[in-house]
Design a protein that fits this description.
Blueprint (H helix, E strand, L loop, with lengths): L2 H32 L1 H4 L16 E7 L3 H10 L7 E5 L26 E2 L16 E2 L21 H9 L7 H11 E3 L16 E5 L6 H11 L16 E3 L2 E2 L1 E2 L2 E2 L2 H6 L8 E5 L2 E8 L4 E9 L2 E13 L2 H11 L2 E2 L1 H4 L8 E2 L11 E3 L3 E3 L13 H4 L2 H9 L13 E5 L13 E6 L11 H5 L3 H7 L8 E8 L7 E3 L10 E3 L6 H17 L3 H5 L3 E2 L15 H10 L1 E3 L31 E3 L14 H18 L10
Parallel strand pairs: 1-2, 1-14, 2-11, 5-6, 14-26, 15-16
Antiparallel strand pairs: 3-4, 6-8, 7-19, 9-10, 12-13, 13-14, 17-25, 18-21, 18-24, 19-20, 20-21, 22-23
Length: 634
């Protein structure tokens, strides 16, 4: 590939930006003028004026993401308690409601823009050989920028948490909280013992699908791997089916929409947006959290918490805040001049994520000239589709092509009788060439050179992607604090594929995914793996295990599920950070309640488990302060 080819690709990107931006502008204008259901002016959060900030609150919740929204809403159900929610981002823009638009907000002002440290073992096709890690910088957090797939995990995940010494976290107990948070709207689940109704988070089918969805299911039937009842959150997890989503009337149902918009007007709940929390205030003599320090509008503020500070800033920011506040590994804090108030070596460790391989792209023939079965973005991002959407008609903007069909499978390294799959597979209805590289390439941070080399030849052709995800990695990463400045991101050592079994499982997942494309229905479409990706490792045998490993190392991509960095564990585990009541070891009146407390990563997308953790965490707080009530939402 020559420099000229790369330059041609870059200029094509530039010429594509203007019409795409114009269509998005028209879409935004149309929504503001004609979709009051999306604008939702009456329920949109109004941040308090900073002059109204009280000197103290019973509870200060740090982070308005998935967990923080739950906690603020649930704790403020008690009218005797005052609650402050601090969120560094603003409210959700209207375009976030549209399922199809979710990739647009990655690497945007609504994203923290984390990236992992470079490696020669993964993310080799990415800019600087770094995996890009989007994290929501907006009220609702990652529930506002994710792909909305509603997967709870496997019952064995939670039984395993309990077996590790965390009583109260077994499946039979946490199922109550999954049901409590849920408003299941998919027909056929009205009497299911696994589902709830009337909760804050509505769950629906995705409203708009491509013709490929039925083709994927026919391929799954050919391999006899169709899910028996289409419910990954029910009695069994193994199999293929279209996933359910956290959707309301076909649009995103974030934690902000589900929890905060129905509670923010309570007189005992204050919310400050654009508030950047810098550290937890801890009294060194009593070893007690007494408040937080934050910045708002370039002015520094301190606010007291008379009962508790609750960190809900996520798996990256919560451990960083602990370390900045003097709680963490002594060997990291002392060189930075941070006084060690509590040596906790586990803070920032135990990092886990669901690594995927996004490079298995296939082209195919639709069978009808001029008719596409997959999503070709320039044909769909036009004034007609914008007009259809603002009229309320089902359209492209209700789609979530990233995984129209999902599957959970067990490789040869996992006993299928356990129904505890070790691979998740997304069947997506467009490839990197479908949008000209404007969003997919940018979101994955693939270099211009690699895109020109591997994906430019399949530009705007019918294509799909089969992406396996490693469910329970053996590898563990860690965060490294490099500055006492809270605005400096910690280094993220993802350590993907450190354990050799992780790559072995990923290779088996890719091979299984390829078998789906060899089924009769796929072969009738002439489904063909994008041969140009072989250019990454031309020395290996095509379709050998080494070939699939090459694909995995070049096109490594997070599925946005980092967890584990403030591990929940009994006192006997030296790597633990919080106890089963989510209290930080050695520091009174300080808890962490978010994805960071998970000792092991759940089998599936993590947003629903985070909501569950926060629901249970809110009840734990109520119990511990002896103010638990069954009032409020159920």
């Amino acid at each position: 590939m020559t420099a000229i080819d790369t330059l041609v690709t870059m200029w094509r990107f530039l010429f594509t930006i203007a019409p795409s931006a114009y269509m998005l502008l028209q879409l935004n204008i149309g929504i503001m003028e004609r979709r009051p259901d999306i604008v939702d002016e009456a329920h949109r959060v109004r941040t308090i004026h900073i002059e109204q900030l009280r000197d103290s609150y019973d509870f200060v919740v740090v982070g308005g993401g998935s967990a923080g929204c739950v906690l603020a809403a649930r704790l403020s159900e008690n009218p005797q308690w005052s609650v402050l929610l601090l969120e560094a981002g603003g409210d959700e823009p209207v375009l976030m409601d549209l399922p199809q638009m979710y990739p647009v907000f990655q690497r945007s002002p609504w994203d923290w823009k984390y990236s992992v440290e470079p490696s020669n073992r993964y993310c080799l096709a990415m800019e600087d050989q770094r995996c890009f890690w989007p994290r929501g910088k907006v009220l609702g957090g990652c529930s506002s920028i994710n792909a909305m797939m509603y997967i709870r995990g496997n019952r064995r995940d939670y039984d395993h948490w309990a077996a590790l010494g965390n009583p109260g976290w077994h499946y039979d107990n946490v199922l109550h909280y999954f049901r409590k948070l849920e408003d299941m709207r998919v027909p056929g689940y009205e009497r299911s013992p696994y589902h709830g109704h009337g909760g804050p988070i509505s769950v629906e089918n995705y409203r708009f699908a491509s013709p490929l969805r039925d083709i994927y299911m026919e391929a799954a039937r050919a391999l006899d791997v169709v899910h028996p009842d289409g419910d990954f959150n029910g009695r069994t997890q193994t199999g293929f089916a279209p996933p359910h989503g956290t959707l309301r009337e076909g649009l995103r149902c974030s934690a902000n929409k589900g929890y905060i918009r129905r509670s923010w007007q309570r007189p005992n709940l204050d919310i400050v947006l654009k508030a950047f929390v810098e550290r937890v205030l801890i009294d060194a003599r009593s070893r007690r959290a007494v408040g937080v320090a934050f910045e708002y509008g370039l002015v520094k503020y301190k606010v007291r918490a008379t009962r508790e500070v609750v960190l809900a800033a996520g798996a990256l920011a919560s451990p960083q805040l602990l370390m900045l506040s003097g709680v963490g590994p002594r060997e990291q804090l002392q060189p930075l001049g941070i006084e060690v108030l509590q040596h906790l070596p586990g803070v920032g460790g135990n990092l886990q994520d669901h690594i995927s391989t996004s490079g298995a792209h296939y082209t195919f023939d639709s069978g009808t000239p001029g008719k596409h079965l997959s999503f070709i973005v320039p044909e769909l991002l036009n004034i007609e589709s914008v007009e259809a959407f603002v009229r309320g008609t089902d359209s492209f903007f209700y789609a979530s092509p990233v995984s129209e069909v999902m599957g959970f499978v067990s490789t040869k390294y996992q006993d299928p009788a356990l129904d505890w799959p070790d691979v998740q597979i997304f069947l997506g209805s467009y490839g990197y060439g479908a949008d000209g590289g404007m969003v997919g390439r940018r979101g994955a941070a693939i270099t211009l050179e690699n895109y020109a080399d591997s994906f430019e030849p399949m530009l705007y052709r019918d294509s799909f992607v089969v992406a396996p995800l490693l469910m329970r990695p053996r590898s563990r990463g860690y965060l490294q604090l490099i500055s006492s400045d809270p605005r400096t991101h910690p280094l993220i050592h993802a350590n993907y594929y450190d354990h050799p079994l992780d790559m072995a499982v990923m290779v088996e997942g890719l091979k299984f995914a390829h078998r789906l494309t060899l089924t009769p229905v796929m072969q009738r479409l002439n489904a063909t793996l994008n041969i140009y990706e072989w250019r990454n490792c031309p020395e290996v045998e095509y379709l050998s295990d080494a070939f699939w490993e090459c694909l995995a190392r070049f096109y490594s991509q997070t599925i946005y599920h980092p967890v584990g960095t403030c591990k929940m564990a009994p006192n006997s585990d030296p790597s633990g950070v919080v106890d089963p009541r989510l209290r930080v070891r050695g520091i009174r009146n300080l808890r962490v309640i978010d994805a960071s407390i998970m000792p092991t990563i759940p089998t599936g997308n993590t947003n629903a488990p985070v909501l569950m953790v926060a629901e249970r965490g809110a009840d734990i707080i109520k119990e511990d302060w002896r103010h638990f009530s069954d009032g409020g939402w159920h």
